[in-house]
């Protein structure tokens, strides 16, 4: 669980390192948020609490240098805190055992010995640190509800065949989930992120919105008046960078 690199604020992929590759700090955040998501699934967390845990993690490291604290300890505390914020309470023992199994596949649950209690105390103390650093502002507006609304609206616009033959909905949800690997939730408004992942999903499958050429404004601006094409392009670019890291990191 060694922490490396330097501070990177704003989530997302702030910029490439040498030879156009993501900076080391972004790779660390990618790996740790992947841990949050996988641990969250094994703990039975719903989508919103997992998203909150990722957001807490990214926001914490906007304020604190990455090499100051073990990022995986911050991640476990973020999971624990997110469960409280979203009213899906988790036991620290379960978080510890799932985390231990993640790093040591096939291992048995930890005994309730001094090592276990030290780790539990570390998670609780780190939770208090996270709350202080974030000034107790740990309630976030996520894009999920907006994406659900936009998908329902778009489904009514498209003909039934176009909607049923392409997994636009499934792809948009997957893109939204994956965006939390890079912390785009801190860089872009929730509505903009929801529209952008839907825009990219439509582009992937070549689905066109009916009568868009004759419309006064593009369909995506109907959903969000202040959204612009450059904002969409920035979000899509960051998502592509996240997927490029996914192919590089084992």
From TrEMBL:
Pfam annotation, one family: Cyclin_N
Lineage per the UniProt record: Eukaryota, Metazoa, Chordata, Craniata, Vertebrata
Quaternary context: Associates with CDK10 to promote its kinase activity.
Residue spans of biased composition, Gly residues class: 8-18
Stored CDD domains: CYCLIN_CCNM_CCNQ_rpt1 (cd20534), CYCLIN_CCNM_CCNQ_rpt2 (cd20535)
GO CC annotation, single: cyclin-dependent protein kinase holoenzyme complex
Function: Activating cyclin for the cyclin-associated kinase CDK10.
InterPro entries membership: Cyclin-like_dom, Cyclin-like_sf, Cyclin-Q_first_cyclin_box, Cyclin-Q_second_cyclin_box, Cyclin/Ssn8, Cyclin_N
Annotated GO MF terms: cyclin-dependent protein serine/threonine kinase regulator activity; protein kinase activator activity
UniProt-recorded name of the protein: Cyclin-Q
Gene: CCNQ
Keywords from the UniProt entry: Acetylation, Cyclin
Family named by the database record: Belongs to the cyclin family. Cyclin-like FAM58 subfamily.
Domain Cyclin-like: from-to ranges: 34-132
Source species, domain of life: Eukaryota
Disordered, as annotated region: 1-22
Electron transport keyword on record: no
Any GO BP annotation: regulation of transcription by RNA polymerase II
């Amino acid at each position: 669980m060694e922490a490396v690199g330097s501070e990177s604020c704003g989530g997302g992929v702030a910029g490439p390192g040498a030879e156009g590759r993501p900076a080391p700090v972004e790779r660390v955040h990618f790996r740790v948020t992947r841990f949050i998501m996988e641990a969250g699934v094994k703990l039975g967390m719903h989508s919103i609490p997992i998203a909150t845990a990722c957001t807490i993690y990214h926001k914490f490291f906007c304020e604190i240098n990455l090499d100051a604290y073990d990022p995986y300890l911050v991640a476990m505390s973020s999971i624990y805190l997110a469960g409280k914020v979203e009213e899906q309470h988790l036991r620290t023992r379960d978080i510890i055992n799932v985390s231990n199994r993640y790093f040591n596949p096939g291992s048995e649950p930890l005994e309730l010995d001094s090592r276990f209690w030290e780790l539990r105390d570390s998670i609780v103390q780190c939770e208090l640190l996270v709350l202080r650093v974030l000034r107790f502002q740990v309630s976030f507006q996520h894009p999920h509800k907006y994406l659900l609304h936009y998908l329902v609206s778009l489904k009514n616009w498209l003909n039934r065949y176009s909607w049923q033959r392409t997994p636009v909905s499934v792809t948009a949800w997957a893109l939204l989930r994956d965006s939390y690997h890079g912390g785009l939730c801190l860089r872009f408004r929730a509505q903009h992120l929801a529209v952008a992942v839907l825009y990219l999903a439509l582009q992937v499958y070549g689905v066109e919105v009916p009568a868009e050429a004759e419309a006064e404004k593009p369909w995506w601006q109907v959903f969000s008046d202040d959204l612009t094409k450059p904002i969409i392009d920035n979000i899509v670019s960051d998502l592509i960078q996240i997927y490029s890291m996914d192919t590089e990191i084992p």
